[in-house]
Amino acid sequence: MNNERLNYGDRIIYMEGVVVDVDDCSISIDLKGRLGFFKAPKRMFICDTEPKVGQEFGWNMSFPEQLGPEVNDKYVSNIEKERRKQEEMRARLDDNKED
C-alpha cells in the first residue's frame, strides 16, 4: 500500500448499508445515515451466502483523500471516449425507433 502519498492519517470508520440491487457483477448498497450510495464488484464483498436485496453489510473505511491537483489525462480521455460511444449508441437506437 502506498500510504506515503497521503497527508492525513487513517481515520477508520465503521459503515453499514442495505443491499438495494444485486446483478451478475456487482452489489449496490444504500449507506445508512443518508450518506449516499455504494456500488462495487461482487469480488470485493465477503459473503457466506449469495447476497440478496434487503441484507445488511458492514465494513471499515476511511475518507478518500485527493492525492494532488494533477488530472490524469488518460482517464479523462477514456471517460470522454465512453461518453461519446454511449451517445452514438443512443442516437442509433433513436434513429431505429423512428424507422
Oligomer: single chain
| Helix proportion range | 25-40%
Uncertain runs are none
* Largest beta sheet: strand ordering: 3-2-1-4
What shape does the CA trace take?
flat
Major sheet attributes = 4 strands, antiparallel
According to DSSP, the number of beta strands is 4
Please provide the ordered H/E string of secondary-structure elements.
Answer: EEEEH
Q: Structural class, judged by helices and strands?
A: alpha+beta
Cα end-to-end separation: 54 Å
Mean pLDDT: 90
Count of helix runs: 1
Strand content: 25-35%
Radius of gyration: 19 Å
InterPro entries: CBO2463_dom (IPR048108)
Coiled coil: 72-99
Keywords: Coiled coil
Describe this structure in words.
This protein has 99 residues and is α+β, with helices and mostly antiparallel strands. Helix content is 26%, strand content 28%. It has a 4-stranded antiparallel β-sheet with strand order 3-2-1-4, with no helix packed on it. Strand 2 and strand 3 form a beta hairpin. It is flat and about 55 Å long. The mean pLDDT is 90. Keywords: Coiled coil. InterPro entries: CBO2463_dom.
